[in-house]
Each structure stands twice: as C-alpha cells, then as structure tokens.
Amino acid sequence: MNFLRSLFAPRQSFRSFALLDSQGRCQAFKHCLAVPVGDGWVEIQEVRLNWLHQPLPASARISPHSTGPVVQPILAT
C-alpha cells in the first residue's frame, strides 16, 4: 500500500548548480535538492557541458530562492 501511495506523492525535484571560480568561469556542475555547501555555487536552469571552463552566461542563472517567510509591511490607516 505504501508503494502505491509513494507513486502519487509529490516529489522534490533536483536542482542544478554550477561552481564558479573567482573569474566567473564554470568549474563543475551538481544536481541536488539543496544548495551545495561552499562558496561559488550558483543555481542554473540547465547543465550544458560547453560551459565548462567558460564564463557562465547571465541568462543561465536562476534568482536565489527565498528561505524565510515573506514579510509584508503593515498598511497605515
């Protein structure tokens, strides 16, 4: 029964990350559920092997995900 339930349960999808050096060149790729530990990792939309050892195009990056609750200002009455 648990097997059937697991088939229809929502799953977290893997996210793609690129490791950039100090000059902005792509050094490695990684697929994982959370942001990798360490400096230089940026989230990207897709992995393209021709980006290795090349500057990462700005269009490849994804804006950072918000980890905390969104706080909205209280409207003055």
Can you describe what's shown?
The termini are far apart. A three-stranded antiparallel β-sheet has the order 2-1-3, with no helix packed on it. It has one helix and three strands, in the order αβββ. A hairpin with a 5-residue loop joins strand 1 and strand 2. The radius of gyration is 18 Å and the shape is flat. It has a domain at 12-60. With 77 residues, it is mainly β.
Defining traits:
single chain; 77 residues; mainly beta; 22% strand
Uncertain spans: none
Radius of gyration, in angstroms, nearest whole number:
18 Å
Could you tell me how far the N terminus lies from the C terminus, measured between alpha carbons in angstroms?
54 Å
Q: Which percent range fits the helix content? A: under 10%
Biggest sheet record:
3 strands, antiparallel
Structural category: mainly beta
Helical segment tally? 1
Q: Sketch the topology as an H/E string, one letter per element.
A: HEEE
